[in-house]
UniProtKB/TrEMBL annotation:
UniProt keyword list: Cell junction, Cell membrane, Membrane, Tight junction, Transmembrane, Transmembrane helix
Gene this chain is encoded by: Cldn19_1
Molecular function, one GO term: structural molecule activity
Protein name per its UniProtKB record: Claudin
Subcellular location field: Cell junction, Tight junction; Cell membrane
Membrane topology (UniProt): Multi-pass membrane protein
Function: Claudins function as major constituents of the tight junction complexes that regulate the permeability of epithelia.
UniProt xrefs under Pfam families: PMP22_Claudin
InterPro entries in UniProt: Claudin, Claudin_CS, PMP22/EMP/MP20/Claudin
Main location: other
Length: 210
């Protein structure tokens, strides 16, 4: 029962991490216009993400525009895009595989050892998904930090800083890796040894009875 509860907790955490990763990939707030400095004169708030850039007026109107060209984008944006897509794909397959391997489900093999192995495979997929999300978000954050602090003629209140999507991405990576680690705790070694002992003890018991 304890193993099943641990698997369920890991699956729910990893599922929440995948949903948060999907939200982070879609949100345009990967970086936002800075409000630092002495002269804060901003009637328009600028946000940029992996897929679009948005401008929020002081009146509440928001206008967004998709990035026109893929090849004209900066390298860190293209890399973050690719890593987030890979992360979402790995997480999607991890959701399917984990359902088949969890003890509380009747899907797939009835052998507990085989199901444990499948659950571990799902946990590995979730961990890889979390690592891809972590790499994508950290790479983008590193570039934002570099552009903010480098010497430039751009005023400090006209530069960009971290957006809310980065923090959502870091949380998604943490949940995915935590959930995957809990699923990987379903090690089938003990169950396999127990089954072998049970099979070896049955013939000896039969001989003693005869």
């Amino acid at each position: 029962m304890a193993g099943g509860a641990r698997e369920l907790a890991g699956y729910l955490a990893a599922l929440a991490g995948w949903v948060a990763g999907l939200a982070a990939a879609v949100l345009p707030q990967w970086r936002q216009s800075s409000y630092a400095g002495d002269a804060i004169i901003t009637a328009v708030g600028l946000h940029e993400g992996l897929w679009m850039s948005c401008a929020a007026q002081s009146t509440g109107q928001v206008q967004c525009r998709l990035h026109d060209s893929l090849l004209s984008l900066e390298v860190h944006i293209q890399t973050s895009r690719a890593l987030m897509v890979i992360s979402l794909l790995l997480g999607f397959f991890g959701i399917i595989v984990s359902v088949m391997g969890m003890k509380c489900t009747k899907v797939g093999e009835e052998d507990p050892v085989t199901k444990s192995r499948v659950a571990v495979a799902g946990g590995v997929l979730f961990i890889l998904s979390g690592l891809c999300t972590l790499a994508a978000v950290s790479l983008y954050a590193t570039q934002v930090t570099y552009e903010f602090f480098r010497e430039s003629t751009i005023p400090i209140n006209a530069r960009y800083e971290f957006g809310s999507a980065l923090f959502v991405g870091w949380g998604a990576a943490s949940l995915s890796m935590l959930g995957g680690s809990l699923l990987c705790c379903s090690c089938p070694a003990k169950e396999r040894r127990g089954q072998q002992y049970h099979q070896q003890s049955q013939p000896s018991a039969a001989r003693e009875y005869v």
